Amino acid sequence: MKAVQLVQTGHPLQLCDVPLPAIGAHDVRVRVMAAGICHSDVHYRAGTSPVQTLPMTFGHEVAGVIEAAGDAVVHLKPGDRVCLHYMVTCGHCVYCNAGQEQFCASGAMIGKHRPGGYAEAIVLPARSVFVLPADIPFEAGAIMMCSSSTALHALRKARLQPGESVAVFGVGGLGMSAVQLAFALGALTVYAVDINPARLALAQRFGAQPIDATVEDAAAQIRRRTSGRGVDVAVELIGLPVTMRQSVQSLAVQGRAALAGITQKSFDVTPYHELINREAEIIGVSDHLASEIPLLLNLASMGKIDLSQVITRSIPLDADQINAALDNLDGFGEGVRVVIKPNG
Q: What is the number of H-type helices and E-type strands within the chain?
């Protein structure tokens, strides 16, 4: 079968011929109908966040149709529409038993540690596979498996309560979901911070108040709009030291900054004024949980998340077009989310 792989770190992905993956008794093989291109893939290609072995088939936002199921699989069958939780874990270690499977010592992320969805088919344990409701398109189901699920996890880690205010730093793929999910979880006001006018306009259509970071320091704008108080929750989804610092500076008393953006760089914090004197918190956000996916799918079926305007375009399983999409993300270019359709 065809798959688009990283063969050498720091170089473009390549279209390769690979064997059709075999399935075990507890596995399913999924014909990939949609695979999202995530900004994390830019970091994997560059080596900022290294993949485990090469060559590696990218793609951790995946939805499709089950082609085959192992003999021990009872809750899924060929023909089922599904979306894939991107962490494959042992299921019985201390972290898995505590519902914190993203820290599983043997955990493997598809598209980084084991073959992902930039391919015609993918094999996963059945417990990592969720039925995709008929009213959710494959394209939306795919990008929900990272952008929406990570945004939901960030908001839950930040303990967002009904009636609170939220600032979302970066309204790309994750940020558009974060804006909508914040409202779904009861946020009264959501501020969307970005430098891209089109993204700010889209976030505004979803109900957010736009903060153009090219005009003035984003934290200063948020404080002025909140009469100096700041926001209860800030979610940083870009991975830049400047926006991480601004997310902390924008916090109200007992505010929580949830950082999900990937970076290897540090940022400055003034402990007394920005944290201690406010009893504010900085919270790390790592991936998301399988237990959160049913809630996410229910919210989408209820119309609480609209991803139709977030998906900028779809492309075939073509290495040149995929590399171009990654280059665009790397440069924080136009558009929000590109989806690969390996099987038409």
A: 10, 18
Task: Note whether 15 and 4 are within 8 A (CB).
Answer: yes
In CATH, what is the architecture of 2-137+308-340? Alpha-Beta Complex (3.90)
Assign 132 to helix, strand or coil. coil
List, for residues 140-169, the tens digit of each pLDDT value.
999 999 989 999 999 999 999 999 999 999
Report the distance separating Cα 68 and Cα 76, nearest Å: 9
Q: What is the pTM of this model?
A: 0.91
Return d(Cα 320, Cα 7) in angstroms, integer.
14
Task: Give me Rg for the CA atoms of the chain.
Answer: 20
Domain definitions of the chain by residue range: 2-137+308-340, 149-284
pLDDT in tens, 68-117: 999 999 999 999 999 999 999 988 899 989 888 889 988 999 999 999 99
For residues 29 and 119, the answer to whether their CB atoms sit within 8 Å is no
Q: How many CB atoms lie within 10 A of CB 163?
A: 10
Tell me which CATH code domain 149-284 carries.
Answer: 3.40.50.720
CA distance 280 to 275: 5
